[in-house]
């Protein structure tokens, strides 16, 4: 019996803007929160000011569209809303 395929997160970041550390920190936050609920977080080098987060190919957040970077709390909520909407994120859910 095969296990269901776990979702995969991809963070594409701009190498020209030196956003690797920001992308890696976001990846760490997601892996810590969803350690048994996601298969992986991939860091994808890009250019042109890109900072996009995708879940199984679906765009969750775009810096260009939003005009800002995502907050850690916000990104966790976006991922949670797609993989386990009933899940409580503790302090990340509080206003």
Can you walk through the features of this model?
It comes from Methylobacillus flagellatus (strain ATCC 51484 / DSM 6875 / VKM B-1610 / KT). This is SelT/selW/selH selenoprotein. Keywords: Redox-active center. A hairpin with a 2-residue loop joins strand 3 and strand 4. The radius of gyration is 13 Å and the shape is globular. Helices cover 32% and strands 25% of the residues. The model has no long low-confidence stretch (mean pLDDT 93). Helix 1 crosses helix 3. It has one domain: Glutaredoxin, CATH 3.40.30.10. It is built from three helices and four strands. Strands 2-1-3-4 form a four-stranded mixed β-sheet.
Write the layout of secondary structure elements.
Layout: E1 8-14, H1 20-33, E2 40-46, E3 51-55, E4 58-62, H2 63-66, H3 72-83
Parallel strand pairs: 1-2
Antiparallel strand pairs: 1-3, 3-4
Keywords: Redox-active center
Protein name: SelT/selW/selH selenoprotein
Pfam family, one: Rdx
